[in-house]
Amino acid sequence: MKAALLLDGEAPKVAPGELRRIVMKAGIEVGEAKADFGIVVGGDGRFSRYGRTEKIPLLFVGVRSKGAIGSKARLAQTVLDELPEALARIRAGGYEIDEHRRLRVIKGTRVLGEVFTDVYLQRGAEGSCLRYKLKVSGKGAEFEEAAIADGIVVATRAGATGYYSYVDRIGRNVVEPSAFARIGRDEVGICHITPTYTERLGVGTHPLRYTVPWGSKIEISLSREADARLFGVTDSRAGIKVSMGEKVSIAAGKEVTKVMTLP
């Protein structure tokens, strides 16, 4: 077998040479050309990044965090200090491939790419909330909403434990770090980020978070000019600026992310 090593280019959680040593000691060749699978070492942000770009199966490897706000790596199948055992299982065929459908993101007429976990529109440097409209169309879901919030997140089932789960972690006036939500294989999650107001037009309800059927078309547009940034579909920490009159469309993608699991 041959593995590609996929790390953070700026601040890898393990030295590339050390990871290469671990993999080769397990009897697995290292190289990007014609690799059978990729080993991604990092946190959920790194997993999300490679999950939206790679076509080969991916093994997500977390690193035990010593700091209170270190990486939680909820998508990891193993941790770095247990990687040799995980690789032995993989060499013996003791793994499965879980295919995750991606979401395609379009701004105006420009296809920005596909996401594995989530994409979210959030306020940038300005202190005021975003005012935006949301339209969902498709079989089983037809409605429009208006909101005033810090932003909005659209998530796949792989992204359910991320930003989408902030609602679950706030309870009884404390933060519950281990709490998280689930999104079904045939669902897409939508969550308003700390809203001050939402309204489902024509109904009068005030939704916070819900799911819609996979295949639904989701459109987001600003109701007032603001410093709005789209994250999750670019490597830029500044995100992609979205202005008044620019519609962000999110729908089922064409690609899948292949995740190696160790049942």
CATH third-tier fold name of the largest domain: Tumour Suppressor Smad4
Q: CATH superfamily name of the largest domain?
A: Probable inorganic polyphosphate/atp-NAD kinase, domain 2
Number of helices in the DSSP assignment = 4
Straight-line N-to-C gap: 20 Å
**What are the low-pLDDT stretches, counting only 5+ consecutive residues below 50?**
none
Give a verbal description of the structure.
There is one protein chain. This protein is mainly β. It folds into two domains: 2-94, Rossmann fold (3-Layer(aba) Sandwich); 102-255, Probable inorganic polyphosphate/atp-NAD kinase, domain 2 (Tumour Suppressor Smad4), CATH 2.60.200.30. It contains four helices and 20 strands. It has helices spanning 16-25, 44-51, 83-91, 166-169; strands at residues 2-6, 29-30, 37-41, 58-62, 78-79, 96-107, 110-115, 118-123, 130-137, 143-149, 151-155, 170-171, 174-175, 187-193, 197-200, 209-213, 217-222, 228-231, 240-242, 248-261. A seven-stranded antiparallel beta sheet has the order 7-6-20-17-9-10-15. A six-stranded antiparallel beta sheet has the order 16-14-11-8-18-19, with no helix packed on it. A hairpin with a 2-residue loop joins strand 6 (96-107) and strand 7. The relative contact order is 0.19. The mean pLDDT is 95.
